[in-house]
Design brief:
The protein has about 450 residues and is an alpha/beta fold. The chain has four domains: about 120 residues, Rossmann fold; about 80 residues, Alpha-Beta Plaits (2-Layer Sandwich); about 100 residues, Rossmann fold; about 90 residues, Regulator of K+ conductance, C-terminal domain (Alpha-Beta Plaits). The protein is about 30% helix and about 25% strand. The protein is globular and about 60 Å long.
């Protein structure tokens, strides 16, 4: 597949590196030699110096042969313009990063599709959804709802109170049990488990279940003593914070600590319809945090542009008694460190955005793709097509590669877990988990 990426910034370089490992034909366009050089020579891709809004540059990049054109520069107008040009010049599909929440309305997206932009992504809005999913359940590191909650994936850190430690999964998670453990992160190791694997203390375990069994999962992992989040303190008042606060449930009361006085005034204007208090100050200032009630706050969310600041602030909040912390960590090198320090939920906008873009590469009917950065695993929702390989045999006889497991499926709106004897039917939405496997090797089972 030929893919052209415009913008050698955070999302563009992350995506280029990710896709180059999958042996895709990648061209990265940027107007800065320094940024292009920073991606290094270890990746199999072509770099091109120039503006993605230049017809000559696009033509030199063989835009007419492009299967996918991705515009992720910091300038929304440049992304939109370059996608329109790319489509007119022959690119099969286009995706543009935008900063305006108004453009994410369905009517606006239909309008942009007519202009030649197949998909719009707003990373801050995507991150806000992940933040709120983490806050709604204080005992969960990560939550992902499939088909409006027909199936639910929960990433949970296992502590001493967990009832199901040190037991083979075949004894605690059989075909008739209401959950499956689909992935385990243990230290730096990721495990797609089999029946003889066991859950260990401090594992980050990913459970697939249905909505009505969430209380049962909470009980067996020993998290019933975790209080629900009602008071949230946010450090940093950027776009991600605004989108997250706007999406928070009505019962949550929020305080935003912002160091820039002018930004505080702006936040007061746009968040005046919510129960949100804007505080001018430094979120690392312990006396300020204490004065503003950090000890009676159930969640602390650090969303400044500096990963180190966010990690340190979350460590401070934990020391002051906050149980639930969320940190924006844009530097991938810091993610494993944040995990080792037991920070809590880690938000990485470029990984979230890359996941949404990645699904456009797949030929199968794919509803969602997510990269579980904490577990270094991918999860995708495939639609089984008529006469596809996956519908021919029970799951145990499909010959799926090592490192792949099917966690569950949705059939006619009803979520159900999958065992080795399950027969997948055409039209089923199937949740597939992969570790160290190219997703394109899995899609052949579904087309």
């Amino acid at each position: 597949m030929k893919i052209i990426i415009a913008g050698a910034y955070a999302i563009g370089t992350h995506l280029a590196r990710l896709l180059s490992r999958s042996k895709e034909d990648i061209t990265l366009i940027d107007d800065s030699e320094e940024r292009l050089a920073s991606i290094g020579s270890d990746y199999d891709l072509l770099t091109m110096l120039g503006q993605p809004t230049s017809l000559k540059i696009l033509q030199n990049a063989d835009i007419q042969d492009a299967d996918l054109f991705i515009a992720v520069t910091p300038l929304e107008s440049k992304n939109i313009t370059s996608c329109i040009l790319a489509k007119k010049l022959g690119a099969k599909r286009t995706v543009a990063k935008v900063d305006n929440p108004e453009y994410m309305d369905q009517q606006a997206q239909d309008f942009f599709r007519e202009l030649g932009i197949d998909k719009l992504i707003y990373p801050e809005m995507l991150a806000a959804v992940d933040i709120n999913n983490g806050l709604k359940m204080s005992w969960v590191r990560q939550r992902w709802d499939v088909h409006d909650g027909a199936l639910i994936m929960l990433g949970i850190k296992l502590r001493e109170t967990c009832e199901i430690l040190n037991k083979p999964l075949k004894d605690i998670s059989g075909p008739n049990d209401p959950y499956h453990v689909v992935a385990i992160k243990r230290g730096s190791e990721t495990i797609i488990p089999g029946g003889y694997d066991e859950l260990k203390l401090y594992d980050l375990a990913y459970f697939m279940t249905t909505r009505n069994y969430i209380p049962y999962i909470r009980k067996i992992v020993g998290k019933e003593h975790y209080v629900d989040v009602k008071n949230v303190m946010v450090m940093g008042g950027g776009r991600t914070a605004v989108r997250a606060v706007k999406k928070m449930p009505e019962y949550m009361e929020t305080k935003i600590i912002e160091i820039d006085e002018h930004r505080c005034e702006y936040l007061n204007d746009i968040l005046d319809d919510r129960k949100t208090l804007i505080i001018h100050g430094d979120g690392r200032d312990i006396p300020l945090l204490t004065e503003e009630g950090i000890r009676s706050t159930q969640a602390f969310v650090a969303l400044t542009g500096n990963a180190e600041t966010n990690i340190l602030a979350c460590l401070t909040a934990k020391r002051l008694g906050v149980r639930k912390t969320v940190a924006a960590v844009e530097n991938v090198d810091y993610v494993s460190m944040a995990e080792s320090l037991d920070i809590g939920t880690i938000i990485n906008k470029k990984a979230i955005a890359a996941s949404y873009i990645y699904q456009m590469m797949l030929d199968a009917d794919v509803m969602n793709v997510r990269f579980l950065m904490s577990a270094n695993a991918d999860v995708a929702e495939f639609i089984a097509k008529e006469d596809s390989k996956v519908t021919k045999k029970p799951v145990k006889d499909l010959g799926m590669p090592i490192g792949v497991t099917i966690g569950g499926l949705v059939r006619k709106g009803e979520g159900m877990l999958v065992s080795g004897h399950t027969q997948i039917e055409p039209g089923d939405s199937v949740m597939v988990f992969c570790h160290n496997i190219n997703m394109k090797k899995i899609e052949k089972y579904f087309i």
